[in-house]
Amino acid sequence: MLDSIWNLVTLDIGIDLGTANTLVHVAGKGIMINEPSVVAVNKKTKEVLAVGNDARQMIGRTPANVVAVRPLKDGIITDFDTTQAMIRYFIERVHELSAKFLKIPRPRVVMGVPSSVTEVERQAVVDAAKSAGARTVYIVEEAIAAAIGVGLPIEDPSGSMIVDVGGGTTDVAVLSLGGIVVDKTLQIAGDEMNQDIINYVRHKYNLLVGERSAEDVKISIGSAYPQKEERAVVLQGRDLISGLPKAIEITSVEVREALMNSLSSITDAIKDAVEETPPELLADLATSGVTLAGGGSQLRGLDRFWKEKLKLPVIVADDPMTAVARGTAKLLERVDLLKKAQSSWDEII
Prior knowledge:
This protein is an alpha+beta fold.
């Protein structure tokens, strides 16, 4: 009886703590938060002024005493205090949205992290979540969480392959019997694609643009494969020669050319993973193919591009950006699978 009452008033939370965006899934309610992993801080007082969408609007626009920072880089916490403040904000925001007039006990939290993180880095994530109010913290590899989130049969003896293209990292994994058989994590993903665009317009047009502008261009007209209708947008920045404002028109063909630098590196990592896959599982991949998840997988034509390069079926998962968050939520419903997913890591309480 007490357990039933406890389950009614407590919240189980799954968090995809991403370099670019943080998504929070709440049991029984779905994705409640999907905001940029950005925090605006007063440099003098260290006071947190804004988090998420409000903080992202400040990037490149803040006065001298205010800085808008992304506390994670390449999937790793680089600023513990700011990350802690961000996680606390999101957990408190969940409580506000869930029950404005009811004090809810501290939640159980499952957080997805890249499989390449060290024990020290994993502990930093746990400490940040606990300091932010979590009762119990479980850490799982993002590749497993993403695979579960998109519905891959990872518990079966057959092979499944997931490629999770996030903001800071790309996780490539072949899974079978509830675990990772082959794993490749590289620090090339959405952020590097933005940098590709910045470097391209700098070299070709002598134009300096910010990360936010580059990301907007990528989302607007970016692609990995030729499109039926190629498009163009106006990109504004600073002329590196005159120092004055300047605007150019950049086409989707040019953006695709710029993105090939990062896409080629990710392609090589996927090929390496395929080459390391045991023959028995490789035969399964010839049928089941590669499933794409993460915000970066929404790049136009990415499935066709990799299908051509890998000679394997490639499918973009439904709602790929929320895959890790949905997977963490499913793990909270399956304690047996959660413990299996943590087989190489101790449960941290």
